[in-house]
Each structure stands twice: as structure tokens, then as C-alpha cells.
Amino acid sequence: MKKNKKIKAFLLKLLTNKRKTLFDIKKSKSVLILKYDRIGDMVVSTPIFRELKLAYPDISISVLASKENRDVIKNNPYIDKIYTNYKNQIFNDLPTLLNLRKKNFDVCIELEHSVIPHAIVRLKIINPKKTITIHKDGRYGVKGSNLKLYDYFTKKDNKSHFGKIWLETLIFFGISPTSYSYDFFLSNNEREKAKIFAISLGKKIKIGINMEGSFPEKSIQKKELEKICIGLYKNFKNIKIIILTQPEKLLEKKKLILDLELDYVETSYSTESIIDAAALVEQLDLIITPDTSIVHIASAFNKPIVSIHENNKDSFRLWSPTSTLSKTIFASSSYGLVNYSVDDIIESACEFLKIIELDI
User: Fold this and answer.
1) Whole-prediction pTM
2) Distance between CA 233 and CA 108 in Å, rounded?
């Protein structure tokens, strides 16, 4: 076993070896940021694009995104070019990666929090002059700081949110962030569709409930949903509850609502993309959701949020809501949403509804 680990460590060092290039990153003309994972991760990383572009207006910013998260930045004015990566399909990505290599990027910023082989392979192919990354604990007994592929590492940070941890990669450009807020830019089409829907609900306080978590075991179940809806209506009659839903689950959610027989609850319109969903969130007054991308989208619009999180304080620190008004209810389970207090959700939501009611 030890011998096997030593071989892996040797191969890792060999793969990450590179010739050093003398280059001042403050003179960079082109930067590629690797962020090809989930939707919420992309939302949380958006301050990087803004702060870099504001500090270096002439710099060209490209992003290697995923098919799932690229729509988050589709309308982002701080980004010049978006490329799509498929993560587990390196051979399908090869033409894109070779094209990126031809661009001869001055800097790549890689935001993986650990040593990831597929990220290393991609960086080797792209071959930027300099590579910035966040602190990595290492792999196979090899410290992250020993990997010569990376030129700059941020300091280890066990206290901050991922938004701040990722934004610290800009310190090597001499940038002190002016804001940590997220960006989510909408087109007029998505915004108008959402506005028309919101107007159709009348002068009600509009509460969005997202039942879906990142995994089935992290979702709100029908029994809890019913208790939440009834509890909110008992305290506030002037509300409309909108169940957020993806197109493929629209019929399922419509049937669920028919079974509930609550006339103040209805489904959202069919949100065909994450931009559609974000436009709807922008029009709502309060969001109730498990810990998933909706938390970060709502934070981008500074919406009051009541989130439900498994009993994992490290995960919460890294992914907590950043809205001015937010409250998180923790389940008793360390994984999944088991045994959380519906009464606490209702109480927290009602506290926000009192504030919202005064502003309407």
C-alpha cells in the first residue's frame, strides 16, 4: 500500500512539473477562470469576474464553464468569452482545450479546493504562463504547495465562506475587493416573463418555496410542505405561495398542489433555464429552500431567505446565504434533511413577512 502511494505521489509530481515563466501577472491581458461544476458554485464565484474587470478594464476574461452552470454567466458583462467543459469526458473536451492552448493565456485561475487530476490535466493542456489557485491540502502525501504546476496559492482559510476564499485569488493582481456580492444578469425576455407572472398574482406577498435539494435526501417532503404552507397562511392571509419547479417536474408539482387543496398555493410557470428561475426569484418577496443553488440565486438578488441545512457547520460556513435577511434551520442529521423543525421555519418566515409587509 505504501509503495502504491509513493508511485502515485511520484506520478503526481511528474504530471504537475512545468518550466517556470518570468511574467508579471499585473501586466496580464488575458485570464481564463476554470469553474465547470454546479450552478450554485458559479453564482458564488461571480464576484471574481466583476472585481477583476473593474480593476483591470482592458483585461480579457474567459471562463471554462459546464453545460449546467454556463447560463449563470450568459449575460454577464464582465466576461468576454465562455467555453463549455464536460468534466468527465476529457476526449470530448480535447478540441476545446487545444483551442484554449492556442490562446496562450497569461493567467489561469483554478478554484478547486483539493488536488483534482482532471483539473491538472486540463491545465497541462491549456498551458497558461501563470496559474493561480486556492490552498490545497495535497494528495498521496504530496502537499499542494509542492505542485509546480501552480505558481500562486492563497493562504489556508478555515473560517470564511467560499465566496471570500475564491475572491482571495485576486490578491496576486493587487486587488482589494470593493464588494463580495454576487451577480446574476438577466435579459429583458426572462425578466418580462417573470414580471407578467408576478402581476397575475395580484397585490399579495409572494413566497417562493423550492422543494428540491441537490440530492433527493436533501429535499422538502410533501408532509413538511403542507405544514409550512398552512402555518404561513394561518399568520398571514395576504400571501401567495409559489412552488418553484423545473419543466420536467411541472405535472408532478401540479398534482401535488391539487392534493394539498390549498387555494393560496400554485406552481411557478415552466422555468426552462436557470435564468428563467432566477428571473422568477427576483420577483418574489421571500424564499424558502433547502441548501442548493436557489439559496445563492436568492442571495444574488438580496432576497430574504429561510434555508434548511443538514447539521454540518463546516458546509454551512462555506455555503451559507449572504442575503441581508437570512435564517437557516438545521436538521438533526449530518447528511440529508431529517428531523428539522417546521415550526422554526414558519416562525423565521413570519418574522421576515412582518418586515416585508411594512415595505409593501
Assistant:
1) 0.94
2) 51
